Amino acid sequence: EVQLVESGGGLVQPGGSLRLSCAASGFTFSSYDMHWVRQVKGKGLEWVSVVGTALDAYYPDSVKGRFTVSRENAKNSLYLQMNSLTVDDTAVYYCVRVQGEWLRPKSGMDVWGRGTTVTVSS
Amino acid sequence: DIVMTQSPLSLPVTPGEPASISCRSSQSLLHSNGKNYLDWYLQKPGQSPQLLIYLGSNRASGVPDRFSGSGSGRDFTLKISRVEAEDVGDYYCMQGVQIPYTFGQGTKLEIK
After folding, report:
1. pLDDT tens sequence across B67-112
2. Cα distance between residue B69 and residue B89, in whole Å
3. A contact test, residue of B90, B101, B107 with most A CBs within 10 A
4. What Å distances lie between residue B96 and A32, A38, A106, B41, B47, CA to CA?
5. Longest dimension (CA), chain A
6. What are the φ and ψ backbone dihedral angles of B85, each rounded to 5 degrees?
7. Is the peptide bond before B100 cis (omega within 30 degrees of 0)?
8. CA distance A19 to A11
9. Regarding beta strands A10-12 and A116-120, do their DSSP bridges make them parallel or antiparallel, or are they unpaired?
10. N- to C-terminal Cα separation, chain A
């Protein structure tokens, strides 16, 4: 069964750091671009990062310089290091699989994890 | 960044009736390879989003054929031919032609 399981969420103070992990199973992890997408409770979806099969990584301006995405293909794992967190980073963070072509989604974001909740509060 | 605009934002529908959601982008989503990088997602209450349509008009695996996607360039539409109770949730369009990927605001479909 194809599966993505996120972990590492929790409560952190403003200015703090957190590292999210995503464990992948049931597919050839190294062949897919891997993304993080977040959702503030009751709000819409926001794309957070991508790490491609060539280990290239990209971010939106809202997290650039603070978040770092990485992957470890030998462990079928995706990570998101989040630094200098603010209350605006409070959200559910989803790990998402994409079969990419030049970092464009060839067939959509076809597998999503259940998400892990990050709460930034003093 | 490409701005995605959905309408309507709220969509009450009687079961068995059709429904339609529009998604417009601030720039063309048609790549020089001929593909429109526009996807549709449904987030049912309490669940993670799920892929419905990719590349504008291709149904994802397991998606009922009452769902269809159309459009090209900047204008796209998701249609449900006959709404069922299980179709309740938030529908999002997303562009992947350019980083950063961006989503529409979401359309909440509810049953009358």
Report:
1. 999 999 999 999 999 999 999 999 999 999 999 999 999 999 999 9
2. 17
3. B101
4. 15, 16, 9, 13, 22
5. 42
6. -55, -35
7. yes
8. 12
9. parallel
10. 40
What is the rounded distance in angstroms from the CA atom of residue A24 to the CA atom of residue A97? Answer: 9
Give the separation between CA A104 and CA B32, rounded to whole angstroms.
Answer: 13
Question: CA of A45: which chain B residue's CA is closest?
Answer: B103
Task: Report residue A51 as tokens.
Answer: 């790490």
Per residue of chain A (122 residues), what is the pLDDT tens digit?
Answer: 999 999 999 999 999 999 999 999 999 999 999 999 999 999 999 999 999 999 999 999 999 999 999 999 999 999 999 999 999 999 999 999 999 888 899 999 999 999 999 999 99
Closest to A108 (Cβ–Cβ): which among B31, B51, B102? B51
Q: Which of A45, A59, A60 sits opposite B49 (nearest CB)?
A: A45
The minimal CB distance from A107 to the residues B54, B90, B101 is found for B54
